[in-house]
Amino acid sequence: MAIEPIPFNKPYMTGLEIESINEAHALGSLSGDGTFTRRCREWLEQLTGTQALLTHSCTAALEMSALLLDIQPGDEVIMPSYTFVSTANAFVLRGGVPVFVDIRPDTLNLDETKIGDAITQKTKAIVPVHYAGVSCEMDEIMAIAARNSLAVVEDAAQGVMSSYRGKMLGSIGDFGAYSFHETKNIISGEGGSLLVNREESLNDAEIIREKGTDRSQFLRGERDKYSWQDHGSSYLPGELIAAFLWGQMRRADEITSMRMEAWERYDELLGPLKASLDCQTPTIPAHVQHNAHMYYVILPRGVDRDSVLKYMREQKVGAIFHYVPLHSAPAGRRFGRQSGELENTDDLASRIVRLPLWCGISESQQCYVVDSLKAAINAD
Ligand SMILES: Cc1ncc(COP(=O)(O)O)c(C=O)c1O
Asked: Domain 252-379, CATH 3.30.428.10 — does that match?
């Protein structure tokens, strides 16, 4: 029997997106900060308790936070090496120096016990990345930041709908950045949001987002004209993107529970096999609520990951690896520096395999994925 390919990701459409886009079309106002941007913003503000600004990507939100922190050439920013390039690039664009710290072996998140050794006179900020939508140890990270007068920017690209001790990810540090890229849980193709947790930075954030002008205040009737105020760029999405996103936000709980069902099924299927396969599966600390963004397996040492992925691909399973650690990439070596050994980063990045996970993946498809993984490991 021919097997249908099982893709790694399948963007989920709620069906409400078209309705919202039609409404935006009928309203006839397509540039940013219209009806749908406002709805999305209010939804985010209610969810997180922060001031939220919709952006065209998480990358844009991270760049905005680098501008808000006034990162200057030579300023150091502590972050994991096991992350997406934008975490570092946002600061490198301002002349900042990413300082790479190792990750924890259980959650693959920034190891909070190693941050202290990375701090110098030049350190300005810590950027915890909530990998797979599972929170970093934020109490410890916030305490280190407070003791050393450092800002905290949460890269919560994967963390929409996740929380830490009851607080939504992205709402704990000074700034938080969400992604609505089509590979994430709540999507708009490209899209993101900056969460502002410092009341005094909101005005500057609005100016940075609107090309360095006070247009946002003007549109609210707080100015009789708008003009160039400070540095800035164009970081806001148009209304069609916001309309699509609104069609997703209205179903955010359903999306999360569908993903959670698939995530838990993998966990049930792999739990009994973990020991015999000698694999590691995700750890979710008790004080953390995750959003089922990702299910991964850390292969046993000595198993060749490329062969496993090739075998699974031949079986039509879209399993994939993840980040190439930034400290080992050409630009990471040029622009950043590492603090201490990055043993867990190198080790885990080379052994991780991410499994297909999307709304609507069936039980039989997931059983097939797990069988294919087992066969691939045993075949190696
Ligand atoms: C940790 C992390 N940060 C930032 C980004 C960038 O997000 P966007 O594509 O919305 O700019 C990603 C994208 O996958 C990511 O995984």
From this structure: no
Give the mean pLDDT of the chain: 97
d(CA 252, CA 233): 30
Distance, CA 223 to ligand 1 centroid (Å)?
A: 35
Cα distances (Å, whole numbers) of residue 126 to 120, 168, 223, 363: 12, 18, 36, 40
Split at pLDDT 50, 70, 90, the class of 3 is confident
Q: What would the pLDDT profile of 40-52 be if each residue is shown by its tens digit? A: 999 999 999 999 9
The domain over range 17-249 is classified in CATH as 3.30.457.10: no
| Cβ proximity of 348 and 1 under 8 Å | no
Choose the residue to mutate in 9, 54, 59 for probing ligand 1, maximizing ligand atoms within 8 Å of C-beta.
59
CA of residue 130 to ligand 1 center, whole Å: 11
Measured in residues, the chain has a length of 380
| pLDDT band at residue 2 using 50, 70 and 90 as cut-offs | low
Q: Mind listing the pLDDT tens digit for each residue in 322-334?
A: 999 999 999 999 9
Measured by CA distance, the residue closest to atom 14 of ligand 1 is: 84
252-379 matches 17-249 in CATH topology: no
* Ligand 1 midpoint to CA 61 (Å): 10
